[in-house]
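User: Hi! Is it possible to get a structure for several chains at once, not just one? Here's what I have:
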Amino acid sequence: MGRIRKKKSGGTPELSTASLPDIVFMLLFFFMVTTTMREVDLKISLKKPRATEIQKLERKDLVAYIYVGTPKNSATYGTEPRVQLDDQLATTQDIGSFVVVKREEINEKERPLMTVSIKSDIKVRMGLIGDIKQELRKAQALKINYSTNPTTSEELFKVY
Amino acid sequence: MAKRSVPEINAGSMADIAFLLLIFFLVTTTMDVDKGLNRKLPPWDDNPIKETSTIKEKNVFVVLVNGQDQLLVEDEYMDVRDLRQTAKEFIDNNGDGSCDVCKGSRNPESSDNPAKAIISLQNDRGTSYETYIKVQNELVAAYNDLRDELAQSQFGKPFDLLGEEAKKFVQDKYPQIISEAEPVSLGGR
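Assistant: Yes, the chains can be modeled jointly so their relative placement is included. Here is the combined structure:
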């Protein structure tokens, strides 16, 4: 007994690190819950336009994404802007069946709430976007969202 | 014989394992929330009937965008920067005096009231997406500004913070009517 007490006395008391794992676990769970894995590999280059009057997309599970831009691999796919659905480049004709498939994945009650988010590069010409919109209208996907980055109104008109 | 205690598992490496997982999730995480301009498309019509309803020309605010990203608003060349103010003046004009909350100039040549004011947008196939979004943004901003102003004067807070009923009231006063024509090809790119 005496010997033990002698050992402990003197020197600064050590900081207890026993709660360190708890803290780390807490952070871990936070990131696990908030994380969303990147759903697709972008095969096109994408620079989103900026806007001020934006709204949040509330329910991510009700959103289907359409990507538009010039292919990154221009040697194989050329330099004309293309449409990307899921993981592959497609044409505007494929959008109809893509929407149908995505709609099937949503449970029946919430199907009218489905939104199609168009993520397009700023350099894309409106001819292509217009074609996409026509296809969406034919497929009865009428709720759309033009994906943009937030900005302030002073920044909006700056030219880079 | 001395009692043997159960050997404890060394939990010292627990923190390391947790750190490893934490760093993995930190790296793979993408926190960006999707944001954008919400719009609604008109339903598809296989054989569109030619428009026969009579809309007075003064109630239509025509915005044309060409392949060189230039704007023609009400037959005049305009910079995108001025679009918001011009659109606001048009919507808020209140030509027939039926809108009790409008502060417009009541110009008889411009729109009758916000419920009748239609913004018509047409772009070329060669218009860039960036310009298109800017124009859309400015038109939506014009409506949002007017709604905010009304919400401020009527309820003392911005539109976003209003309750359901107050929101509906403001929306009824300034309904958002933006009509989009199919893009045309006017040459250029």
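The beta strands of chain A are 50-51, 55-56, 63-69, 82-85, 88-90, 115-120, 143-147, 149-150. The two ends of chain A are 76 Å apart (CA to CA).

User: Great, thank you!
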